[in-house]
Amino acid sequence: MIIDVHGHYTTAPKALETWRNRQIAGLADPAARPQASELVITDDEIRETIEANQLKQMRARGADLTIFSPRASFMAHHIGDFQVSSTWAAICNELCHRVTRLYPEHFIQAAMLPQSPGVPPETCLPELRRCVEEYGAVAINLNPDPSGGHWTSPPLTDRHWYPLYERMVDYDIPAMIHVSTSCNPAFHTTGAHYINADTTAFMQLIQGDLFRDFPTLRFVIPHGGGAAPYHWGRYRGLAQELKKPLLAEHLLRNVFFDTCVYHQPGIDLLTRVVPIDNILFASEMIGAVRGIDPETGHAYDDTKRYIEAAAQLSPAQKGQIYEGNARRVYPRLAAALERRRP
Amino acid sequence: MIIDVHGHYTTAPKALETWRNRQIAGLADPAARPQASELVITDDEIRETIEANQLKQMRARGADLTIFSPRASFMAHHIGDFQVSSTWAAICNELCHRVTRLYPEHFIQAAMLPQSPGVPPETCLPELRRCVEEYGAVAINLNPDPSGGHWTSPPLTDRHWYPLYERMVDYDIPAMIHVSTSCNPAFHTTGAHYINADTTAFMQLIQGDLFRDFPTLRFVIPHGGGAAPYHWGRYRGLAQELKKPLLAEHLLRNVFFDTCVYHQPGIDLLTRVVPIDNILFASEMIGAVRGIDPETGHAYDDTKRYIEAAAQLSPAQKGQIYEGNARRVYPRLAAALERRRP
Q1: Is B315 left (phi over 0), alpha (psi -120 to 50) or beta?
Q2: According to the model, what pLDDT value does residue B53 have?
Q3: What confidence category does residue A243 fall into, taking pLDDT thresholds of 50, 70 and 90?
Q4: What Å distances lie between residue A249 and A114, A256, B127, CA to CA?
Q5: CA of A293 to nearest chain B CA: how many angstroms apart?
Q6: Residue B227 φ/ψ, nearest 5 degrees
Q7: Chain B closest CA to A213's CA: distance in Å?
Q8: Residue A322: in which H helix or E strand, if any?
């Protein structure tokens, strides 16, 4: 079985964006603010957008199941206040839930949180509860920078975030650390802000001792861990200067990297440097990089090809990356799969 | 000949830091502000700090010449106003100049600029002129974020920076894109801010068309290019989506990466992915990562070992990385070396 731990509903029907634009217009003009009930999307519209896109590519490439969450760049937690984010997160999560209900074999949910800059993370708990208990979500996406590129929140190791971590531990769900759109002109969203956030989060975790307080808390750092695996020697050395334990002990029982790295040498480095137990198959399809690589003739984000071509990986190791590790890191996913067995 | 394009005077005599601390104290209390002339450092003190550190390691590792600039994390352009930065840059550059005068065979200067957040970059031109014309500087360090982790400056492709680029082209000197200390608690200075800045700068250059306006302008992106080589497929794909030419044409006549990547797999990826013409030997010794790697028994930042062990590199390619490319990218360095020939 091949599990892709990182997919977003980037192809949602246009009505979703139209509703969001009206919500944003309503920031200045409350009379223009739409009701959630004004968004109407039919099951057929959902089927069209999924079957012609994600599901088509999954079938073509050979992925069975995607952990599916609302479009990351559309979370835009910096827009409006908590109430705006709360309404928007509820809508987006409900829409993803409908995808998972229409295609239970192929999609299982990860929840978007209604974060808002300067607002305590515990305000996200009701939406988190709904997604886990009612929608069967197996993970959350946690934005370490709800300001959208101004980085005004405390590091992930700060007690600021602990109420969320406590609930994650209770539910035994991991968080993917995933920012949203950058509203800072210095940072291109998918080319700088996403990758920087991955790198930043990893270094925050090195600096702190978060997993002493939460030994079972688990984070997935997407986009191949940002710059971390490429600079693994730097990070091992910095941890050493900070008098931390070896990374294997300090972080690697709790921190995992996905395979959203869009060329063979990158995947080769990732799988050479990071223990196989810490690597989770993912493509972020359909996402930031949708083209065909002229050097290979295949889609940049067809990451399964790179795993297949990684000569140093044994079949058993590929199985861990494709499935075994995901079952371990996302126990609610494993439980859902068990329940499905005939 | 082995040229290290990236070294800072991280070991300057304690008197420098003491003076700086008095200058910072003087921000609140102008009566406490020291005169530049109050900083007294003897040639013997300089010799001690260089011979026991950088020069000792260069000899041990086999590097001949270092392009040497003031300590990057001490630039701290966010502290005080332009006048504060101007005095501080002048002091730091003069001190580096004294190192290059004492050891002309082993050190040649790159200039720190007196940048200050919100202040037009053309204010840096007098210090730049002094460093090039009086101190023989062959390059500058350009901080894309003088705010120290708040990223309040326009992207490097913005006309904001053009007066500096015009002078760089006139002098035919490259800039290393190098941030300083982070004062944003989200970003560890050397573990997140440095690497993020490299990644951010590279993506800014992809988004723009800067080298159409300045075909001979050259930037060196340090720390192995941040995350860029590891995510080379992502960057090729993003350039493609932005309808830019292939990276070889769009950027690689003007953008170069150093080898400050502190483990073998990272250097192997860099030299496999980035054209050899675009790779410059560097160690940033003595810098962020000063320890011994327990996996190898050697210093993390002894990057020459990784180049030597990169099986795919021919002796000619190693020669390019060690010397040939640096002579091409830093023509004033090449000219200085020519002048030294008997």
Answers
A1: alpha
A2: 98
A3: very high
A4: 33, 13, 48
A5: 7
A6: -95, -5
A7: 20
A8: none
pLDDT of amino acid B31: 86
Mutation for testing the B interface, residue in A157, A190, A195, A207 having most B CBs under 10 Å: A195
* A38: closest CA of chain B, how far (Å): 34
B122 has catalytic annotation: no
CA distance B241 to B23: 48
Interface test with B, best of A152, A204, A234, A290 (most B CBs within 10 A): A234
- Are B149 and B187 in contact by the 8 Å Cβ rule? The answer is yes
E strand intervals along A145-242: 175-177, 219-221
Catalytic residues of A: 284
Nearest-CA residue of chain A relative to B289? A237
CB contact under 8 A, A191 and B207: yes
pLDDT digits (tens, 9 = 90+) for B49-88: 999 999 999 999 999 999 999 999 999 999 999 999 999 9
> A45-59, pLDDT tens digit by residue?
999 999 999 999 999
Interface test with A, best of B160, B230, B283 (most A CBs within 10 A): B230
User: What is the mean predicted confidence (pLDDT) over B167-183?
Assistant: 98
- High-pLDDT (> 90) share of chain B, %: 98
Q: Determine the pLDDT at residue B340.
A: 87
What is the pTM for the complete model shown?
A: 0.98
The alpha-helical segments, DSSP class H, found in chain B are 14-28, 43-49, 55-61, 72-75, 82-102, 125-129, 162-171, 194-207, 210-213, 232-241, 247-250, 264-273, 303-309, 315-319, 325-329, 331-340
Going from the C-alpha of A118 to that of each of A47, A80, A153, B15, the distances in angstroms are 37, 12, 7, 41
**Per-residue pLDDT at A341:** 81
Catalytic: which of B17, B284, B295, B308? B284
Query: Cβ A203–B223 below 8 Å, yes or no?
Result: no
Whether the complex's predicted ipTM surpasses the cut of 0.95: yes
Report helix, strand or coil for A144: coil
Alpha-carbon distance of A25 to B240, in angstroms, equals 32
Looking at the DSSP bridge assignments, the partners of residue A292 are A299
Find the CB nearest B227 among A195, A291, A300: A195
Q: In angstroms, rounded to a whole number, what is the distance separating the alpha carbons of residues A152 and A119?
A: 11
Size of interface A-B (CB pairs under 8 A): 200
CA distance B13 to A158: 36
pLDDT digits (tens, 9 = 90+) for B126-162: 999 999 999 999 999 999 999 999 999 999 999 999 9
Are A203 and B192 a contacting pair at CB < 8 A? yes
CB atoms A269 and B230 under 8 Å: yes
Q: Who's near B76: CB < 8 A, 6+ residues apart?
A: B148, B180, B181
For tokens 């600039």, what's the residue? Answer: B69
Residue B15, Cβ neighbours under 10 Å: how many?
15
- Note the pLDDT tens digit of each residue in A25-39: 999 988 889 999 999
